[in-house]
Structure formats: structure tokens, C-alpha cells
Design goal:
The protein contains 13 helices and 21 strands. By secondary structure, the chain is an alpha+beta fold. Bound molecules: adenosine-5-diphosphoribose and P-hydroxybenzoic acid (PHB).
Amino acid sequence: MRTQVGIIGAGPAGLMLSHLLHLQGIDSIILEKRSREEIEGTIRAGLLEQGTVDLMKKTGVGERLMREGHFHEGIELRFNGQSHRVNLHDLTGGKKVTVYAQHEVIKDLVAARLNVGGKIIFNAQEVSLHDIETTEPKIQFHYDKDSELQEISCDYIAGCDGFHGPSRPSIPNSIRKEYQKIYPFGWLGILTEAPPSAPELIYANHERGFTLLSTRSPEVQRLYLQVNPNDDITNWPDDRIWKELHARLEINGEWKLTEGPIIQKNIVPMRSFVCDPMQYGRLFLAGDAAHIVPPTGAKGLNLAIADVQVLARALDTYYATGNEELLKRYSTICLRRVWKAERFSWSMTAMLHRHPDHTPFEQQIQLAELDYVTSSRAAATTLAENYVGLPIEWQAGEKEETIAGFLYNE
Ligand code: APR
Ligand code: PHB
């Protein structure tokens, strides 16, 4: 088999890359180790930046998102027994965020690819990368564990295979520098069949630990509790979860959290991680394969989408003109934005969680920061512009929200 771009992983990064390349007339094949049902059913986060929404709309995969997504113009920060609204819309010149679950994005992208004959090989086993330092890199795999070895020759390989995939380790240790921070807490996430308790997301800093109230639909809500990362979900019967959510969220006596049956619950640890460079030879990493953020800033999916916009444009430039200059700068362009999102996610995490090693002095500093962010327009603007999403900076002074305008300037 042969293709122009071999893509490993059908997460948001791999699927959106394949979709963008198709619109640019570039051929790709996606190799995904899980089944279609699994990738379309895995519950993840679900907050889209304005730029992600704009890209989906302009590239023809935003129809259901516009119908079923929830558009939020602000968020609420709760601390010290009080609630404060950050008006994202006013502070950013009219931008919003959209709640739409990641697996719904996956369903829309898979459907868009398959509808036009796009090639996604599900259940691909033992995927491995070869000859990435040459001009004809190859991906090998098996259709199933008993079948013979297959090989795809490519011009380029996109490693979109998440944090645990084989792409990142294919960059030699001597070249690859990894930065990591592990946090001393995790998030217990639930889905509950209940009506929304609030019109916007609530991020609550409480002495018992951080809590986030989010939504999925008028019937299903998403909530998170800060817990010990080594805790076991069996220690959290439903009544304990509700007791803790009420205690951390109901701070002013008037507002009440509405309960419902819990239909899904799990605990995830939290880390920050960056791999530098994000490219080696003819291999380009995108999304979680190259970087991880803690979910407090809601950046994971959006970073993955930003990376592949840069890669799609760089590949388009190369195929159209033979000029590899943008491809050579891929890692540099992405990492500038990645590090800013890392900084923001880390700072939101630090500001909102209960830190086991914090002294009373550091707890007061944390509350002062929340007080500052919610009382100074300058500080609130900083939070808002990061939360709705920073532009991609192609080079000094050249900023763009998305490449949709560039690609589809009808
Ligand atoms: N072979 C083939 N596919 C693989 C392999 C492998 N060896 N290893 C992993 N994959 C697949 C996974 O099954 C998954 O479907 O790669 C895909 C990676 O997708 P994601 O983990 O969703 O990563 P990404 O596309 O970068 O999107 C980042 O996903 O994890 C969330 O919070 C994160 O929102 C962020 C987003
Ligand atoms: C979610 O709805 O899953 C969600 C929203 C905002 C976050 C993280 C997760 O910061």
C-alpha cells in the first residue's frame, strides 16, 4: 500500500488531519488500534474553543455541533463562599466556548471521512514505524493478530496516537527532550441523568477540594471532584459523591445542585507533559502524542486540533510548491502555542485545587489570586483570552484564529 500521509491514531488529531488533507486534495490512510464503536463511545472532556468550532463549521463538519452544542459566554468561579462570573464574551471581543463531547466530535469526523471514501483501518494491531529518517517512511501493522504483516509506504507519517502510542518513542532518546509534571491529585468524573443545575460551567475552589460542574445535554450533566490520584473508584459509592458535590458547590445557601442517577464514573490522574521537538525526519507528532495538559483549562482537544491545522497547512504548502520551509518550522510553531496552553492549564490547576503540601500562607495567596482574577478587568481578560483560545502564530506578528479562512476563502 502507498499513501501520501500515513496517520497513526483516529483521535481528534488524526481524524481532523485526514479531513483537512482530503479538502486539500492530499491522500492519507489512518491506522487505529481500537474499533469504531470504542473510539465513538469513550467518554472524555468536551469544551471547544472558538477556533475549533470555527474550523469545524468552515470545513463542513459543524452541522450537528451547531445544533446540539451548548454555547457559553461566561464561566463562574466559586471560592470563599461566593460566586463570580467571568464574562468571556465581553472580555474577548465577542468570543464564546462550546460544550460538545469529544466523542461526538469523533463521530462527526469519522462519518465525514467514511462518506467520501476516506480510509480508516480500525483494529490495526502491532503498528510500528520504519525508515522515518528517509524520504520513504513506512508503517507496518497486522489486520488482526493471526494475519500477515502489512506495510504502507508514505511521504510523511503523522503520529496522532495519543500519549501511549508508538510514534513518540520512535524519535531517538538523544534528540527528544521531555518535560513533565505529575500533580498530587486526580479528577473523579461522573455523568448523571439530571437537568442542568446552572446555565454556565462552575469552577469551585473549596477547602474540601476542587469541583467542576459542566454539562452534556438538557438531560445529562458532567461533574468532576478533586480526589487523591491513587484513590479507587470503589471507594466512591454514589451517595458519597453527591454528598461531596453538595458540600463543595453549594456555598451561598440559595443555589441547589440537582441530583440524578449516576450513569458513569471514573478517576483520572493529572499531568503536564511536553515533548520537544515534535518532529524528527519525516515523522510529525500531533496532539496527546506530543503533549498533555491537566483538564482544568480544557485545552487537550483544542491543542490537538491546532497542531493538525499547522501540519495540514505545512503539507499543503509542500505539495503545492515543493517548499518545505513550513514543515521544517512545524515543531517551533506548535510548541510556542503549546507552552502557552501548558502555562494556562498549570496556572488554572494551581489556582483552583487544594494542594496537600500548601501552608496556610500559600492558601491565602491562592485566594488572593482568585480575588484578583475576579475583581481586576486586566486579570480577568488574561484568563478569558486564554480560556477561549489563543491564535496560532505562524511567525512573529502573524496571528490567525484558524486556517479555515486560508483554506476555504470562498
Ligand atoms: N496503533 C494505532 N492507534 C493507536 C495506537 C497504536 N499503537 N496507540 C494509540 N492509538 C490510538 C488510540 O486508540 C486513540 O484512538 O490513537 C488515538 C489517539 O487519540 P487521543 O488519545 O484522543 O489523542 P489526540 O487525537 O491527540 O486527541 C487529544 O484526546 O485524550 C484526549 O484529553 C485529550 O482531548 C485530548 C485529545
Ligand atoms: C467537560 O465538560 O468535560 C470539561 C469542561 C471544562 C473543563 C474540563 C472538562 O475544564
